[in-house]
């Protein structure tokens, strides 16, 4: 029987078999998604242990050295467009005599992308053609070229409970606006009545390829584990992905011979946006991910300032000269155990566990630690970490633990953390109001909050540190619209009058939020994506108004994402049992794989674990997802960025 822990070992094994066997004496070029997967599977150190000479970014500005004849490229994408351009640029600028290209997208998906070829073809047509191109770019037919599939999609963020797919962090369930776009492209055919009617063939071309590539990656994972899955789906996008996995040619043959049974449940994130965008998650890691800066090129991990472990003086307005730490501690069992606790425990328990680990470690190293009673403070944690400064052996032995301790201290003392509590307070007030009044009445309560920060009419409490800026206001709007169906029905049944009042109020909110956005001294990453502007100087009132208006168009559709679930309120109808067929149930199998399309929060990991242990104590649950969510991720996924040109179709 496959266990959850068996599954979390598979990504590391995939790197061992598909990549590490190829990198001896090579310079390795790797894109961000594959680098993030490797980051949680042991990091670049494993490449050097396998004999790699150097590891570089997958960029046209990189190249091999004079005495580096071998290159290995590891990419998460199809071999077309930008990926092809970058490989060509690097090879042309170098003197490679041997090139190996490893792609995390299976060959059948490349065949479909090329068009006119059968996805079930046995030949490696596309890979063979690309090998010819590599020889051409190396300057002759005597160069050695190899192109192969490497299933290095998943990252074991938790050895006990969680696998992420960084290459699909952008993937999000279908929304009402997507249905409009799909119908607009098929005027001569039957228009689709709802998202439930959408199948893989109706999706835009790039999204089709993403879904098929993800299904192929899941099949590789299941094949490596020897598992035969029974799939279940909740939501339109989940149904499409489950259908693609069921129809995958290799999956059909695998299911005939595999002996380990598992339930695979796909769930759309849009079934519960409130849980993702809200600040009620009582989890330390959720707050760390929210307030600390992400590692460059990473979706999940963050930068931990390591300056406190050195004698380097901090200077204002300058970047730290010390390389940042991170949360992924795969080399230290003690740090890994602490990370698991932080990820799946409540905030207070996580902080106490960090303190306990630091105190125990300092005591073992015979460092002069001073204990203090009462609440754990960031200053206290920092003082424990500083004890290790100058102790070379202790720093090397416990570096992973110290990075997690510093991440906790820097989060607890971060000036942006009070905003978390401010948002939580507003969310609780709105939730309480939803039970007492109509959606229109609750939405109207947001209007007084929509005032520019630092304005004359802004209260003293609405400072930049703890007030509601545009990012927080957008989060509150998503929170409220996702709960619109839970509000009290309008008196008299609503009707046209209620709808007209809602439209008028939304116009007021659009105008007020536009003013808030245009008065910002600097644009947050979320506002930059929404408006397509990098600086306030670029942002005009018209552009901001248009972006906010489009945002409200998406918000209106959120309240209908769970409409199809209403039929599940009365699925079972009792009878005499004659002619009834026993249908499969997710709880029938000893292992449940829960795939959340669009992301999962750390708080939900704890909820899933506790629910499973209470109701199905003998069942193991492994969560798979596209990303580990922070509240601000949800608007970025919901509202498409403006002013961006699509990637080139390529060769």
TrEMBL record:
**InterPro entries in alphabetical order:** Sec1-like, Sec1-like_dom2, Sec1-like_sf
Q: Which GO terms describe its biological process?
A: protein transport; vesicle-mediated transport
Determine if Protein transport is one of this entry's keywords.
yes
Keyword list (alphabetical) reads: Protein transport, Transport
Q: Which family does it belong to?
A: Belongs to the STXBP/unc-18/SEC1 family.
- Would you tell me the protein name for this molecule? Sec1 family domain containing 2
The organism's taxonomy opens as: Eukaryota, Metazoa, Chordata, Craniata, Vertebrata
